[in-house]
Amino acid sequence: MKVLVINSGSSSLKYQFIDIEKNEAVAKGICERIGMQGSKITYAPIGKDKIVKEAPIPNHTAGIRLVLDALEDKEFGVIKSLKEIDAVGHRVVHGGEKFASSVLITDEVIDVIESLTDLAPLHNPANLTGIRAFKELMPDVPMVGVFDTAFHQTMPKEAYLYALPYSAYTDLMIRRYGFHGTSHYYVSRRAAELLGKPIEQTKIVTCHLGNGSSIAAVDGGKSIDTSMGFTPLEGVPMGTRCGDIDPAIVTYLMEKLNLDVAGVTEYMNKKSGVFGISGISSDFRDLADAEHTDERAALALKVFAYKVKKYIGAYACAMGGLDAIVFTAGVGENDRRVRELVLEGLEFLNVEADFELNMTCPRGATVDLAKPSSKVRVFVIPTDEEMVIAKDTARIVKEMQNAK
Ligand code: AMP
After folding, report:
1. Does the beta carbon of 271 lie inside 6 Å of ligand 1?
2. Which pTM value belongs to this model?
3. What is d(CA 163, CA 74) in angstroms, rounded to the nearest whole number?
């Protein structure tokens, strides 16, 4: 079975075409600046040079048409006919409490995703645009929705409830949902394999550290807590997002800086995080370059790592034990300095990291950074959210076909 995985944003559309039996991507790419001037499609058949083509992409349907044309292209395509696309898997950011697992997309499912727009006003409408465009272009191909929030639906109530009046939960759906679920799911399974234990017998803290970051406590294979909350603003500081702050700061900022709701939302989402502290960049590579010459760049790294460390401690406590810490995503997989800062001083938790190996291990590889004597393993595991989406899609479509 071959599955096209789609991650549709407001002005971009990432795609990956995956051969399920071979367990590998065949082609991938992105449409950028959809609906704007200067739109372009990047197409990369795996193992060959990528092709970038500037073309008008007025909407998502036009973008998807370009993707399908590229996949089918006589010269550099990877399929002979669109019939070779057996299913489409869509990343959907917010499934609220409605979806605890991936689902076959029906008109009813589309309505439910739409009804959750209040919870993810930027993301869910963009995801739906991609879904609707495919429905129009390939109405007979089954589609599956895979939700960022679904993996965290196993959190117990004490972990997901905020101490607000209970009606905030019942009437306004305010609770912790958590995000990056497909990534936390994938790396926790890989970690259990590397531990050589059934996932049910493991206690793992997964650190998805990228432009957006979240930490999860995965106990027995289930998410029991995670650092992102009602929105992806909570938790550790991020590229430009503030993460946890005293909620009273919000109204104080509004008063002192004369900001309205949109203004304070932008302040916390776009101007804060490691960018806000350093004043230099949201990109950890730039901070690493400036660490020894710029005090605030060094401080931004320290604040970030300190917060990650605190979550690891909190989640070891929440699970009553710890078998492994996992680092994944852009920063977790690549930023040795951040990993060093996070891992320093965790010996009391039976975490003995090999700091030399941390500095020398190859990027993009799966590595165990713990010393042989360490009771807790420390894995770097490249995440693969697209593969999770593709496999879930294939499983659900096969189940549907078998039921017929
Ligand atoms: P992601 O959101 O997972 O794509 O991660 C993107 C972020 O990873 C970038 O903004 C960088 O801050 C970080 N990153 C990528 N490569 C490196 C690297 N070699 N060293 C440090 N940070 C990196």
Report:
1. no
2. 0.95
3. 59
Ligand 1 binding pocket includes 330 (Cβ within 6 Å) = yes
Exactly one of 69, 148, 286, 289 is catalytic; name it.
148
Please, where are the H alpha helices in 138-180? 157-160, 166-172
Report the alpha-carbon distance of residue 151 to residue 208 in Å, rounded: 14
pLDDT in tens, 337-355: 999 999 999 999 999 999 9
- The CB density around residue 257, as the number of other CB atoms within 10 Å, is 10
Please, what are the domains in the chain? 2-147 (3.30.420.40), 197-385 (3.30.420.40)
Where b means 16+ CB within 10 Å and e means fewer, 50-65 reads: eeeeeeebeebbbbbe
pLDDT tens digit sequence for 13-27: 999 999 999 999 999
Output the average pLDDT for the chain.
96
Q: How many C-alpha atoms does 118 have within 13 Å on its Cβ side?
A: 6
Q: How many other C-beta atoms can be found within 10 angstroms of the C-beta atom of residue 258?
A: 8
